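Tutorial, part two.
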Amino acid sequence: MDRGTHASGAFRVRGNAGRTLLLATLAFFGGFAGVSVFGPLVPRFTQLMHLDPVQAGLLAAIANLTGSLLRIPFGAWADAAGGKRPFLVLLGLSWLGIAGITAVMGLAYPAHLDGLYPVLLLLGLFAGAGIATFSVGIAQVSYWYPRERQGGPLGTYAGLGNAAPGLFAGVLPVMLLAWGAVPTYAAWMAFLAAIAAVYAAGAHDAPSFQLRAQGRPVTAQAVAAWGQDLLPAGSARDGLATAAHNPATWVLVVLYFTSFGGFLALTAWLPTFWHAGYHVSLAAGGMLTLLFSLLTSLVRVPGGLMADRFSIRYALVVNLLVIAAGATLLATASTLPAAVAGEVLMALGMGLQNAVIFKLVPRYVPSAVGGASGWIGGLGAFGGFVIPPVMGLVAQAGPGGYAHSFAVFWILAAIDLAAVAWLTRTHAAAGRAARDPAGVPT
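Running the prediction step on this input gives:
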């Protein structure tokens, strides 16, 4: 427990930055697994409920929809109330969704699912609430660390948490085959409940929120002893409004649309691409997709650390060029190994870019980290819904089929490079003023 002294008397702050990072990462890992809530069973549901491709696609994507939309208000709520309450509400909603799915599996699977498609969609919406913990945790971790040391912690938080969908997509089919649907989802219920309990018992909000709860004045000087040098805007509406009035927020939305939205999009698109484009088995296509998902997620950890040491404005450009190079390989490769190399390049570029973008949030939107994280995380994640249909249109219209669908990322990279140029030019003075003690420019 850390202690400090204020002019009006002694007070204490519970928790510390390291423990907050650990527990927030654990809670995000549990919530973000909701991306895979229906994935392994979608083909089976399609057969049992006679779903058309649009219905099947909606069932697979429904959790992502909720997880994207809820990032905006819950990220802003973290500015107003700290991260703990928003985290627990989202994990609770996700647990209700998993519990409902478990009940449906027990009562109706596999022979009596007719008519239950809307019920599954509703439960998927609940299960997806855990995905929205991302923006809450970004704010919670950011408020515990000084700005010049946020890259590593934020990269660790996002990288390890983002590994959940890939791991669950690999583990769930094995569990379903060995245990059956009800025990598998019941185990998921227990797993999520245990994570929520551990987080509830050990996590604490940043010092400014604790001082406010004690009725004490909240000033930069009062919280500096615990490493906090960012003070929130004060309310959910203020957080969203403050972030929305800062043009840098929308530039970061555009960048995140490509990197994280692209990550979600390719996680959904790659199995079809590998099967249709290279005639690999569905299992092999799934493993190649798992490679992409895990690599994109885990590279955020070193990416965050590098963001503390290198010029971010150059990193943004390099990452976009890596994404474009990977897309070029995938679009033009004549062999499977060359195409896999393109996938790896895109994973590296997207993962590193995701780490860099949230390093920029506290620097360019320091008074509304949660609100900005909500806009960026929520609207950026919509790329996961927009990009795959556009890639499908390109694949259908062009002579190159599925391979040429990756040309979409050339256009996105070009737009993002223009956005980076604007951000660098417009905020050059602010970047010079915000140099960290080591002299690393923003």
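The radius of gyration is 22 Å. In part three we will examine how such features are distributed along the chain.
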